[in-house]
Amino acid sequence: MGISIFQAVLLGLFACLASLPGMGGTTIGNYTLGRPLVGGLVVGLIMGDVQTGIVVGAAIQVVYIALVTPGGTVSADVRAVTYIGIPLSILAIHGQNLDPASAEASSLAAALGAAVGTLGTVLFYGTATLNLVWQSVGWSAMETRDWHRIRRTIPLVDFVLPWISHILFSFVPTVAICLAGEGMVSLMKDYMPMDGIAMKTLFTVGSLLPAVGVAILCKQVITKPIDWLTFAFGFTLAACLHLNLIACAIIAAFFALIKYQIEEAKAARPAIAGASAGDDEEEEDI
Fold this sequence. Notes:
This protein is an all-alpha fold. Helices cover 82% and strands 0% of the residues.
């Protein structure tokens, strides 16, 4: 089983749409088409093996179900995992004559997805870096205070120029790697070692970005000093009890329910007090 040029082009196009907010939007693009669970169906339709695509997508989605991108930093690029990792996993499963629903196939898909996802961070940061160039074009237009130029420039910066970034760092790599097949992963790991200067520089810069994400989150959710205690409680659960995001979310939902019930009780207390006062006045009238 192989991937034709037409199939590779379609995979590259969906890789662009999955990460280009100006087209599909963040909700439709990154949070829908970019998820392995949805992308598995898309890849299966393109490659003519829907069952294997869905099974592989579900297996890989479990690995990245709690993946977040605070501050724009990513530990793994799900765009690459979905539209490069899933096609390569399907090729590997068919090449080794494995049952797509077997544990061996799921382990193979997860391993390939992790390898491609880690390498895909380079593509993610490359896209973000080139997009900064387009943003500088927009800022230059804003500094002129020429509103006619601004109205012409902003759509160009938001919807047209980003396609260049995504074609270079999404479309072209996806098409090339999918056409090369499974051996491309090993080749990329040999020529782009994780301990090389280029990779170390990218990941060092990227490791500083979570501080920006945490600062943005604090600015949005913290309105009183006491809120810092609630905010730190989640980090305590993760650091001391080693709970994952799902477990922390369940605990948070429990405390949210308690707070909701307390607030409901506070709101009901004046109504009860008012009703009691009204009864006393009626008794005095009698």
